[in-house]
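Q: Structure tokens for this one, please.
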Amino acid sequence: MLNVLMNTVKWFLTRVGIIYFIVFVFFMSCVDLKILDSRIKIRHLNAVIPNFAGMIIFSKHHDSSRTVDWTAYKNYFELILRFMPDDAVAKQLLGFVDYHMGQQDKSIDLFKSVSVINGQGLFWSNYNLGVIYYKKGMLEQASQYLLKAIASNRQLTLLIMQNSIIYKQIFASSYFTFSLNDEMNDALSGAYILLLSCLRSQGKYNQMLVIASKAIDQANLLYKDAFFYYAGLGGMGLGQMENAYLFFQKSISLEKNNPDVYFYLADIFQSKGQEAQARKFLEISYSLHQKNDARFPYDQKINLRFF
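A: Here is the predicted structure, written as tokens:
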């Protein structure tokens, strides 16, 4: 009797086990594991999204007096890269964060890893590499990346930003009140200014005039006075004093408060022996220098950015 009962139980358990197995197999065949995995990852990421306000304000205004909790951003972008190792946007943003956390080498490596996507240069990676190398005084490297930034496909960069989940989170912040096109033009103008400064320091005056003329001809760029100023410096470097004078005069017509323009105009008049005129421009230059206008010199206000 006991044996009969045990056999009955075994038979029942075996049948139940088989049924459970069949149900499990059927369930797994109906579930897309990739979708399930993605949903779990998204849920995990959504739980740790940082407040992007500090990062947005810092990038736009570069306010050194403002304390930013970079750790929260670093943890978030690193988590994204754990799930999606090839995410170009996460790498760019982590590069920005690493730089401001003092991890410059890591920042450079990240920017370089996404400076080209599908054979096309990305603006922000090349722009930020140019700025980093410029600040390090490595002007040859800075020039190379700034040229790549200027030649990059900016529409591709904008498209990537607009389609990125991370950027959509950034844009959703009430602190993001900017036009992407305007910000891109502002940064592009800065790239031209840094490149012109590099070329001047390297004594590449002919190339300066070519680049300055290219910048002047682009209606969407800002700081036109700066481009005429650097064109004037290029003309002086080539000994073309009359052309330099005309470029400086055009710069003044657009912006009257750059002290350096008057300094070099004084130099031109002094070379001609016109001491009174030279002294007049030197006095104006000195007076403007005393005001410590934060906009000048042009290159000193250009920093890393991500929008």
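A few notes: The chain is about 75% helix and 0% strand. Residues 182-307 form a domain with the Serine Threonine Protein Phosphatase 5, Tetratricopeptide repeat fold (CATH 1.25.40.10).
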